[in-house]
């Protein structure tokens, strides 16, 4: 049963998602990108909570459901979840113990076993594992609160006085969403040019095709001759003449056989080479594009995979054997016409009167195909997108019981395509019918007129030769026509492939871009304005000014969706600001080579993405500029507090992770990602909620490791749990894309502003 809009609105209100959705230009109809990439972490979680609430099930499973929320949202969502859980059985998995304090029963697990069970009060009185976990969290907070931070104040003053503004705006902003890549048309010759490295094979294959194409007209002549011989009266002459014709047939068979073999082999070779090259070039071109390009809805995983698998192969339809068929038909047709004119030009001319009609039928057919092929291709892509989305999120699909919904969606997309195909085939079949029928009308006319010519003295075997040659010539056109759907598909696919290959990404190295030599490493955001290309009307950062000094740790805090992760993404140059400058050592980052800039940045993000490789390889991926030794991998893993776990696995560092690292817990994934960032030895460490999925114990150890890793490095850290960033040299409070407050923990607490409010909301 589908939820009504009111139910959805009520659920979004309960999950505290209503306001931010309402502010989006398309409201509930906003497209959120694949895996919700166009939402902030907290927004995604709130929508997931709303989705769970809308189902109104008897059992509610909350697996760290509020971990990515800021305090304000968390307390509101928590209220909603509390209300929802009152009416149903609820299982909560949480690291933040304050969120489960009121649970009817708390189960403490250690190494896969239940070690304690009971209410909060009971478990506290036991003074056991649970007590340890709770007190660990409290002690953490208190240490943060009472620490004397005189020298930090000094640092802050220094920092603050250095926040300065660089005027000038030399960032070019191009709105990727507006810049719609026009589907240009590619000529057949441009496609053949794509096959240019295989020109030698194509030439040989074409010669083979021409020879094969001559086969039918020669057959027509020989048959005509045979009819002439058979009408003779001398048996001996007839015998020797038929033998001669048989030898001709035999020789023709051998030549045609060999030429067909040659043309099929070499055209296939050329076609396959093209597909291989195209796939590799397309994939390279995809990886070259800026992140904003992937945000566009037409560039989802499904569509791009379809491009790589389907379209790259379809281009072959416009070259390879199709090209062979066309050359073959043209050879047949021209020789047939030539022979017809030679043997009886008058009969040839009469039959050729049918040519305009034949061509008209051909033209109509190709036009019909051109109109519908693009739509067809889009429909296949649409259904593939649904399938890929469902399969890659199969856990969510299963838990939501949305199998039928996705199946229905998939079938609907296919039906649209099938209807289009059927409509095409009706019209196409009529056009095909006419094209074939015309051949026989031409034959009838040729015979009728041929009768008169025989009376006038034209040998009747010539009439047979001319009409046969023309019939076979027309049949070869029909063949070319039958293959032309593939040709059109090939041209469409080539269009779309060339469009991608020729696309210049919005974020590229400037012609005089240089390698970044890291001197001081001071990062400055000056008057930065930014909105995501897919939502140009929603400003995310508004005139942001921020300086991050070398070796300092700067924490970004603020409510969910205020733009913290965006600030980090801009320094990585995943996007360029609409206006304003981001600089390192007073050099605009757009003047540096993107790869060089990124090589100095190590990121650990909210949702660490791991590859379906071994743990060792996943860690080594952190630095692709060199061969990372096993010792270094182990060292990084130790620092990230994951070594003990990895060595306890039977295959250790050679353990393969499933797709997206599904075989690890959230905390383990995060620690592998931390190890991956550490191996890079980056100048700047970007921690976007890096420890949010860790339990208190490993968070503490990882935090220590991160503290060590931060030494001598600039660090930008984002955290909702304010206790984790109290030690930061500078805390920047971001509010709705603007810098609202700046200072150390103590200063901000004294200021009693937004930070103080956020801090108090966490129950301190
Ligand atoms: N790729 C994207 N395309 C369009 N809008 C986006 C995209 N990514 C994020 N946004 C929007 O930009 C705003 C800021 O997002 P951002 O991820 O920077 O927030 P955040 O402060 O890090 O939030 P959280 O604490 O929840 O992670 C949000 O409103 C979000 O919906």
TrEMBL record:
Identify the Pfam families for this entry.
ABC_membrane, ABC_tran
Membrane-crossing residues? Answer: 199-224, 245-267, 343-363, 429-451
Any idea where the ABC transporter domain is?
A: 523-761
Keyword Glycoprotein tagged: yes
Q: Where in the cell is it found?
A: Membrane
Q: What is its EC number?
A: 7.6.2.2
Q: Which SMART domains match?
A: AAA
Keywords for this entry? ATP-binding, Glycoprotein, Membrane, Nucleotide-binding, Repeat, Translocase, Transmembrane, Transmembrane helix, Transport
Location, primary (coarse class): membrane
Q: Which InterPro entries match?
A: AAA+_ATPase, ABC1_TM_dom, ABC1_TM_sf, ABC_transporter-like_ATP-bd, ABC_transporter-like_CS, P-loop_NTPase, Type_1_exporter
The GO biological-process annotations, alphabetized, read as: oligopeptide export from mitochondrion; renal tubular secretion; response to insecticide
- The name under which this protein is listed is ABC-type xenobiotic transporter
Catalysed reaction(s) here are: ATP + H2O + xenobioticSide 1 = ADP + phosphate + xenobioticSide 2
Q: Which part of the chain is the ABC transmembrane type-1 domain?
A: 204-483
Enzyme class, top EC level, equals translocase
What's one GO MF term for it? Answer: ABC-type oligopeptide transporter activity
Which family does the record claim for this protein?
A: Belongs to the ABC transporter superfamily. ABCB family. Multidrug resistance exporter (TC 3.A.1.201) subfamily.
